[in-house]
Amino acid sequence: MSASVLFDAPGPRARAWTFAGNVLGAVVAIGVAVWVLIQLNAKGQLSWDLWGPVFSTRTWQYYLLPGLVNTLRAAAFAIVGSLVFGLLFGMGRLSQLAPVRWVCGVFVEFLRAVPVLLMMVFFYGLFGVLLPGVSDKAFLAVVVALILYNGSVIAELVRSGVGNLPRGQREAGLVVGLTEGQALRSIQLPQALVAMLPAMVSQIVVVLKDSALGQIIGYQELLRAGQIVYSGDGNPLQVLTAVAVVFILLNVLLTVVAHRLSKLLSSRTAAAPLEGTGIGNPTAVAGGSRV
Amino acid sequence: MNDYLSGLGSLVERYDVLGAFWTNIQLTFWGALIALVLGTVLALMRISPIASLRWVGATYVNILRNTPLTIIMTFMVMGVWTALQLQLADTFESNFFRLAVVGLAVYHAAFVCESIRSGVNTVPLGQAEAARAIGLSFLPAARLIILPQAFRGAIAPLGNTLIALLKNSTVAAAASVSWETASTMKTMIEFNPNYLWGIFAMFALGYVILVIPIGVLTTWLSQRLAVQR
């Protein structure tokens, strides 16, 4: 372990204690894992009758892969849409005009306070009234709700990205004769966008996770596909594990990309790159600079 | 307009909207309590010098944080209750409620852990070095110098986690807690589509009223207690 705030470099006695703790911790961890496996086995949950269908081609070809495609489709539309929405409202909150700033502020704060699921349910109902002929209402509701929520988060990222820049950046722009708006667009925003790129990749994790909420309004995404599989095969624990593993792999990959980006980009901007925390919360933490 | 409002008012009574919000507040309270305990333990594991504990903590956080909460909630009902036949209470209602609380807690514990860890990370190394230099050993240094600063740094992220937990308590809908807000709103909209906007405005406003004070309070606290560096 590198230098830490809490611990000194260990001497021989501390090293012996650490080693003993390490062995004990490993034994306990393995013990818990074995106990869980024994319990699962006792309930018959490890039998191949239940796990076999999870690995069958039929399950993936007809259910899980089409579900995954729908999940990714909703996430892709949502992330592009929320980027546009976030840029617009982020700039609105930085506007020189107080009314614009105020309206954008109230709208963004409202969207951040309302649970995504409530928005999905509302838009599903709304599209049922407005677009009676459209068959893909659940998809639309999922995408619109995700855009509004994540867009408002990105709007905050834009605002904090600009706020985190050293003051001299804007002042230098003004000194060379740019107006406030020009300095924002040609000096502050480009650097802020670079700084928030990692946080936006982390935001895709949030979008992917929240797209699974679509299941509640009947959108045929990955979790819904899994539910159809286990209601036929009677193996909910196994199928849900497989579905979760797919999500975890995708999200871990995205997190790694975000982390690499943040390291790569730190020389490209005057602000510290932001990394999201993956819970959809609006205040991204400055990565790397304060550790 | 008056007809609309009085119609909406009678809906509020018929569907027990206040009761639904009370359910979400209870889900949030118990979920937050368990998540705080579990998350603190995980954070201690992740900052300890013992490699195997660090590994366990990191694995837990990386798995739980990257799983959609909807899957965890579905798993609590279909995996833990249906498949493993683990029952947390005698009646259906409190069983689903407790399963949902556990689901919320295990998910948000990962974020509590990361919040506390980021609080520890805000303390500069020089603080520990200065503590050693004036002769404090591990426990006094942790108690007097490091942890007070770490807790202050953790307030803002912990507040965000609490807000997320409150909003995420609606996902209890996926754990068959059908009397909470999202499910109540869904039923109300299905049977009274002409009150669509009013119903949504009411529930959205309820969450705004609940969320904004938490946000204001934690921002105020974290700024008031912020360590000037």
Automatic annotation (TrEMBL), chain A:
<keyword id="KW-0813">Transport</keyword>
<dbReference type="Pfam" id="PF00528">
    <property type="entry name" value="BPD_transp_1"/>
</dbReference>
<dbReference type="InterPro" id="IPR000515">
    <property type="entry name" value="MetI-like"/>
</dbReference>
<keyword id="KW-0812">Transmembrane</keyword>
<feature type="transmembrane region" description="Helical">
    <location>
        <begin position="237"/>
        <end position="258"/>
    </location>
</feature>
<feature type="transmembrane region" description="Helical">
    <location>
        <begin position="21"/>
        <end position="42"/>
    </location>
</feature>
<keyword id="KW-0472">Membrane</keyword>
<keyword id="KW-1003">Cell membrane</keyword>
<feature type="transmembrane region" description="Helical">
    <location>
        <begin position="62"/>
        <end position="90"/>
    </location>
</feature>
<dbReference type="InterPro" id="IPR035906">
    <property type="entry name" value="MetI-like_sf"/>
</dbReference>
<keyword id="KW-1133">Transmembrane helix</keyword>
<dbReference type="InterPro" id="IPR010065">
    <property type="entry name" value="AA_ABC_transptr_permease_3TM"/>
</dbReference>
<comment type="similarity">
    <text>Belongs to the binding-protein-dependent transport system permease family.</text>
</comment>
<feature type="domain" description="ABC transmembrane type-1">
    <location>
        <begin position="68"/>
        <end position="258"/>
    </location>
</feature>
<protein>
    <submittedName>
        <fullName>Glutamate transport system permease protein</fullName>
    </submittedName>
</protein>
<feature type="transmembrane region" description="Helical">
    <location>
        <begin position="102"/>
        <end position="126"/>
    </location>
</feature>
<feature type="transmembrane region" description="Helical">
    <location>
        <begin position="138"/>
        <end position="158"/>
    </location>
</feature>
<dbReference type="InterPro" id="IPR043429">
    <property type="entry name" value="ArtM/GltK/GlnP/TcyL/YhdX-like"/>
</dbReference>
TrEMBL record, chain B:
<protein>
    <submittedName>
        <fullName>Glutamate transport system permease protein</fullName>
    </submittedName>
</protein>
<dbReference type="Pfam" id="PF00528">
    <property type="entry name" value="BPD_transp_1"/>
</dbReference>
<feature type="transmembrane region" description="Helical">
    <location>
        <begin position="96"/>
        <end position="113"/>
    </location>
</feature>
<keyword id="KW-0029">Amino-acid transport</keyword>
<feature type="domain" description="ABC transmembrane type-1">
    <location>
        <begin position="21"/>
        <end position="218"/>
    </location>
</feature>
<keyword id="KW-1003">Cell membrane</keyword>
<feature type="transmembrane region" description="Helical">
    <location>
        <begin position="20"/>
        <end position="45"/>
    </location>
</feature>
<keyword id="KW-1133">Transmembrane helix</keyword>
<dbReference type="InterPro" id="IPR000515">
    <property type="entry name" value="MetI-like"/>
</dbReference>
<feature type="transmembrane region" description="Helical">
    <location>
        <begin position="66"/>
        <end position="84"/>
    </location>
</feature>
<keyword id="KW-0812">Transmembrane</keyword>
<keyword id="KW-0813">Transport</keyword>
<dbReference type="InterPro" id="IPR043429">
    <property type="entry name" value="ArtM/GltK/GlnP/TcyL/YhdX-like"/>
</dbReference>
<keyword id="KW-0472">Membrane</keyword>
<feature type="transmembrane region" description="Helical">
    <location>
        <begin position="195"/>
        <end position="221"/>
    </location>
</feature>
<dbReference type="InterPro" id="IPR035906">
    <property type="entry name" value="MetI-like_sf"/>
</dbReference>
<dbReference type="InterPro" id="IPR010065">
    <property type="entry name" value="AA_ABC_transptr_permease_3TM"/>
</dbReference>
<comment type="similarity">
    <text>Belongs to the binding-protein-dependent transport system permease family. HisMQ subfamily.</text>
</comment>
